[in-house]
From TrEMBL:
It comes from Panaeolus cyanescens. Pathway: Secondary metabolite biosynthesis. Belongs to the cytochrome P450 family. Keywords: Heme, Iron, Metal-binding, Monooxygenase, Oxidoreductase, Signal. It comes from the Eukaryota. Its cofactor is heme. GO terms for molecular function: heme binding; iron ion binding; monooxygenase activity; oxidoreductase activity, acting on paired donors, with incorporation or reduction of molecular oxygen. This is Cytochrome P450. InterPro entries: Cyt_P450, Cyt_P450_CS, Cyt_P450_E_grp-I, Cyt_P450_sf, Cytochrome_P450_fung. Residues 1-21 form the signal peptide. Gene3D superfamilies: Cytochrome P450. Pfam families: p450. PANTHER family: P450, PUTATIVE (EUROFUNG)-RELATED (PTHR46300:SF7), P450, PUTATIVE (EUROFUNG)-RELATED-RELATED (PTHR46300).
């Protein structure tokens, strides 16, 4: 064969290889989306609150995946569960977090699991979570703790139901602080719960999209605090102190208990049994993992509290569902004891209520943003490296093509019957995707079931009355922020019988 023949053959092979590569590689550009302005792009199109509603409206026009540009940076908005599943399968390149200057760098959450960069430290944190609460099996060992703290919640609610939100926060805090630090919350104002809730409130405020210009213009970190526009630096400094306290104070409590020889078994005390052989980096990561168990907004207490609060709202709005669930509990559990997590397999309707609460009340409507670590393709569209990716979980859980009458609270949609399969399980959506999927979802589900089953067994949840004696009909409306709560509402929570009161008091005697 001549050199000319070899050259021709080589060129032919190259063309064939190129054709094969091109046939496999989508050729589309960025996903479609609303046209922006020069320089600022779609910055002025971004809604100041409840952005998930606007994103869903754009989705009707542009499809399940769309894009906008903010100051030249692409933001990919996903409205489709099928597209999110594709992101999940390619999690190795879509698991990075963006650098959030205010909430992450200045306030200090960049070192906790929710915002830490994808890499070795992230994997170390996740291993700690997996060992302790990362699957159904280790969480089963925590069922007695969850049931015990639920009983304490029942007694607090029995004493003063008007402080419902406070009781729910203490319920979630009681579970996580006990398993993480061996600390048992106290009745009344608890200093640890208050400390950590304050830090979480700061995080939620610091990460509202567009709330702080420094997120778009990092150079602003270098301006003097006293200059006009520099006030955010003072706020960040104060919030950083709260973040540091969230990390350090409970951790030091456990160390002090260990030194005194009276530490209760916990994630921290067990992990520190070999403290002498641990490196400073290992100790640092242990401490920050512990703080993430309460503070991580994808798996922490905030999400559970939001769902539990929504349950009480749903029961006020749907007394017929409440009665049906109570009848199921009465038939399975009886009136000689309170339900516990061992009853869960035998209470299908209560389980359906738990699932419907997670769907109806989206606790993290758009989750926490992801970032593309390299160029890639999703849904046939080009996703450039460093693009922000937001999953509109709220829309996926309220898509009428998946959930007919999506704004109606209907547990029946999750129960398969002859000739009618159950609708898509919303838990596949509400706990996120990829390598950032919620690490505390098994504990969250156990805590939510325990609270719901016990509350249904013990209480009648009804409308509050106005000054004229007419029932007040609350409205289900979520607050803005990474974690969304139902807006405050009034209700009446009374024991179903004197027998219930005796059971609650007897179990905590």
């Amino acid at each position: 064969m001549s050199l000319q023949d070899i050259a021709v053959a080589g060129a032919g092979l190259a063309l064939v290889s190129l054709a094969i590569a091109l046939s496999k590689k989508p050729q589309s550009g960025l996903p479609p989306g609303p046209k922006g302005l020069p320089l600022v792009g779609n910055l002025l199109d971004m809604p100041p609150e409840k952005e998930w509603i606007k994103f869903a409206e754009w989705g009707k026009q542009y499809g399940g995946i769309l894009s906008v540009k903010i100051l030249g940076r692409p933001m990919i908005i996903v409205n489709s569960a099928a597209i999110m599943e594709e992101l999940d399968k390619k999690g190795s390149i879509y698991s990075q977090r963006p650098v959030l200057e205010m909430g992450g760098e200045l306030v200090g959450y960049a070192q906790t699991l929710v915002l830490i960069a994808y890499g070795q430290r992230f994997r170390t944190y996740r291993k700690h979570f997996a060992r302790y609460i990362g699957s159904g099996k280790p969480v089963q060992s925590l069922h007695p703790l969850v049931d015990h703290e639920t009983r304490r919640f029942l007694k607090r609610t029995l004493g003063n139901y008007e402080d419902l939100m406070s009781h729910l926060r203490k319920l979630a805090g009681g579970v996580i602080l006990k398993l993480t630090y061996g600390y048992e919350v106290i009745d009344g104002e608890d200093p640890f719960v208050n400390l950590i809730e304050k830090a979480n409130e700061n995080f939620n405020a610091a990460t509202v999209p567009g709330a702080f210009p420094v997120d778009f213009f990092p150079i602003m970190k270098k301006i003097p605090e006293w200059l006009p526009g520099g006030g955010f630096l003072k706020t960040a400094r104060e919030w950083k102190k709260d973040t540091d306290s969230m990390v350090e104070v409970p951790y030091q409590y456990t160390k002090d208990q260990m030194a005194a020889g009276c530490a209760a078994p916990s994630f921290v005390s067990t992990s520190l049994e070999n403290e002498a052989s641990m490196t400073p980096e290992e100790l640092r990561d242990l401490k920050l993992t512990a703080s993430s168990m309460y503070g991580d907004t994808e798996g922490g207490a905030d999400t559970t509290v939001s769902a539990e609060y929504a349950f009480f709202l749903a029961m006020v709005l749907h007394p017929e569902i409440q009665k049906k669930a109570q009848a199921e509990i009465d038939s399975v559990v009886g009136d000689r004891r309170l339900p516990n997590l061992s009853d869960q397999p035998h209470l299908p309707y209560v389980n359906a209520i738990v699932t419907e609460v997670l769907r109806w009340n989206s606790v993290a409507p758009t989750g926490v943003p992801h970032t593309a670590m390299e160029d890639g393709y999703i849904g046939g569209y080009f996703i450039p490296k460093n693009s922000l990716i937001l999953a509109n979980l709220w829309h996926m859980l309220h898509d009428p093509e998946v959930y007919p009458d999506p704004f109606v609270f209907d547990p029946e949609r999750h129960i398969a019957t002859e000739g009618k399969p159950a609708q898509t399980d919303p838990r596949k959506v509400c706990f996120g995707y990829g390598r950032r999927i919620c690490p505390g979802m098994y504990l969250a589900e156990a805590s939510l079931f325990s609270c719901i089953a016990a509350s249904l067994a013990c209480f009648n949840i009804t409308n509050a009355l106005d000054e004229n004696g007419a029932p007040i009909i609350p409205v289900h409306e979520g607050t803005s922020g990474i974690i969304s709560y139902p807006k405050p509402f009034k209700c009446v929570i009374k024991p179903r019988s004197e027998r219930v009161v005796s059971l609650i008091n007897a179990e905590l005697a």
